[in-house]
Amino acid sequence: MLTEDIKQMLSTTIKKLTGKVPESIHLEPSDNPDHGDFSTNSALTTSKQLKNKAPLVRGGANESEQGVFSSPREVAEELIAALPENDLISKTDIAGPGFINFWLSDKAYREAFSWLNNKIDQNSFGVLDIGKAQTAITDTSHPNVAKPMGVHHLLSTIIGQSINNLLKTCGYTLIKDNYLGDWGTQFGKLTYAIKTWGHMEVIKSDPIPELLKLYVKFHEEAEQNPTLEDQGRMEFKRLEEGNPESRKLLQWIVDLSLTEFQNIYDRLGVDFDLMNGESFYEDKMESIIKEGVRKGIIVEGEKGALIIPMNDPNKPPAIIRKKDGATLYATRDLARIKYWQDELKGDLGINVVDIAQKLYFEQLFESAQKMGFTKMKQVHIDFGRMEFPEGGMSTRKGKVVLLEEVLDEAERRAYEKIESHDSELSEQGKHELARIMGIGAIKYNVLSQNRNKNYTFDWNQMLSFEGNSAPYLQYAYTRTQSILKKVAEDQNPRLDDPQLRVYEPEEKQLIKTIISFEDIIKRSLENYKPNLLCTYLFELAQSFSQFYNNLRILDAESEEEILTRLQLVKDTAYVLKKGLEILGVEVPERM
Predict the structure, then answer these.
(1) Helix axes 427-447, 244-268, angle to 10 degrees
(2) In the chain, at which end, N or C, are there fewer CB atoms within 10 A of the end residue's CB?
(3) Can you tell me whether residue 565 is helix, strand or coil?
(4) Backbone CA torsion sign across 312, 313, 314, 319
(5) pLDDT tens per residue, range 332-342
(6) Beta strand ranges found along 62-123 (DSSP E)
(7) Using CA atoms, how far apart are residues 456 and 389, in angstroms rounded to an integer?
């Protein structure tokens, strides 16, 4: 494959010059023909590796011709000079501090186009084997039972869905877990609130909102009477000790919550293989505590609490059991990691949880390492908070933007957009399109932003038909379908003729963007950043728009041009659809 061949040439050349194989080679398609077809920063990264090390030796026929170099431009010059002869690259130059630009030969374009079309015909383009023979287990979404899902749950759920799809696309055996919050002191507080102020008839009439009201009431009352916090802890202790009444009440709450959650997951197109909540690990904690104490890893802290001290003395210890004997989230998480490793045979464990838990996961992973749960690699994929004009959100205070209401609003706004345009769709068709557009717009708005920053929730931007948005990409896809539908079924293009050529700049730009798809999938997974894929799809849609606006397709001058351009339309449609599927965004056939 073209880009992989060029990467391999660069890697081999860098090894020849430095003695080391580079960790990775990145090729970026250029959007300006004056700057070549692709560029790489390999000279800059190689120069950084040489910094503070012995300088690279420039070869020569004899010792007097040899010299040393380590600046990026010098490294770039030497890399270009050392590249083996090939018929893929027609020209190179150096830009800026040391970027290498490549111009591809006509043969390279022809071979890349033929390779691409064969892969797409086989439905194998964008299907990788990076994770072959490896099992990845992910925890995403993880709402707390007895509370409605707020819009803040959208981040873990949607980012997690895209990471799951990337893992599956890259060949991993995938186990999708949803580690529900169904244990802990909060259930003691809720139990106390139900017993003290609750009326079962009222709760049954509208379960989750009524339970939330009681939970909020507990905290309001506790602000006036702090001793209620002790009552809540006592109720949870009864739950931990197996009190039948408490256990029965908790199971009832869990069942109600799962029904509510499933309605949301169905709308989002999200599913799970497991929903092992915290309570699942209740009987798996004591053995871990005993093992840790026996090994001297878990020690006694203040007032008899059990802790795992961190290697860094400036970090607080991980608390494994409180002074009153109650377990904590960390206790159950250690049991979860051990279960994932020993019972599910995981190679990679991924936890999609917001940035506020960064220190907690550092403590957890260090604790797991000390306990010997190290066969399975653990990763915390963090993300920022969602910012709204309304300000912060707190379930404890009852101020939460409900996810269900946000999804309803997205579909309503999408429907208004559809109504404002002339549409031949039936009423049912309009509502179905509004669902696809609305849900897709919310998902894409989350995924297109860098997860390391706070998220901005902007209705106008997410439902716009311009710019980097789901509707823009969905419209680009429907445009490809409109073109292809004009071609009779027996005339659908299949590019078998190796003599067909790609001549125009718009054709070349589209091809080189399309063939970068697999590289973007790899990079998105390596960095756990779906926004890289979003940016790529936006650039692809822009390239297609230039191609569509500037070139004749069905009425081109020759049959060769018609077939070539129709094939490019098919290739674009394939990648847009597959890329959006990885992001969990549906594509309509008409808009």
Answers:
(1) 110
(2) N
(3) helix
(4) positive
(5) 999 999 999 99
(6) 67-69, 89-95, 99-104
(7) 9
Structure token digits, residue 527: 């960095």
pLDDT tens per residue, range 253-273:
999 899 999 999 999 999 999
Half-sphere exposure for 13 (CA within 13 Å, toward CB)? 23
Give the confidence band of 85 by pLDDT, cuts at 50, 70, 90. confident
The DSSP result for 133-170, as a single string, is T-EEEEE---PBTTSPPBTTHHHHHHHHHHHHHHHHHT
SS3 557: coil
Paired tokens of 50: 């040489």
> Could you report how far apart the first and last alpha carbons of the chain are, in Å?
35
Q: Are residues 299 and 257 in contact, defined by beta-carbon separation less than 8 angstroms?
A: no
Phi, psi of 329 (to 5 degrees): -55, -40
Mean pLDDT of 150-160: 94
Q: Determine the average pLDDT of the residues in 108-119.
A: 90
As a whole-number percent, the residues of the chain with pLDDT over 70 amount to: 92
Is the CB of residue 284 less than 8 Å from the CB of residue 373?
no
Q: CA–CA separation, 108 vs 88, rounded Å? A: 5
Q: Which amino acid is at 362?
A: E
Over the range 413-436, which residues count as b (16 or more CB within 10 Å of their CB) and which as e?
bbbebbeeeeeeeeeeeeeebbbb
pLDDT surpasses 70 at 63 = no
Check if the beta carbon of residue 69 is closer than 8 Å to that of residue 55: yes
Instruction: Output 436 or 486, whichever has higher pLDDT.
Output: 436
What pLDDT is recorded for position 421? Answer: 82
pLDDT of residue 40: 92
Look up residue 458 and give its amino acid.
D
Strands 377-381 and 299-300: unpaired
HEC letters along 164-218: HHHHHHCCCEEEEECCCECCCHHHHHHHHHHHHHCCHHHHHHCHHHHHHHHHHHH
Cα separation of 179 and 276, whole Å? 5
Residue with tokens 């659908």, as numbered in its chain: 492
Q: How far apart (Å, rounded) are the C-alpha atoms in residues 585 and 269?
A: 9
- What is residue 515's DSSP assignment? T
Task: Tell me which DSSP letter residue 36 carries.
Answer: -
Residue 31 vs residues 39, 76, 546, 553: alpha-carbon distances, Å: 10, 21, 11, 22
d(CA 244, CA 248): 6
549 exposure class (CB count in 10 Å sphere: 0-12, 13-18, 19+): exposed
Distance CA(231)–CA(188), nearest Å, equals: 8
CA distance 302 to 547: 69
Helix, strand or coil, per DSSP, at residue 372? coil
In total, the chain counts a number of residues equal to 591
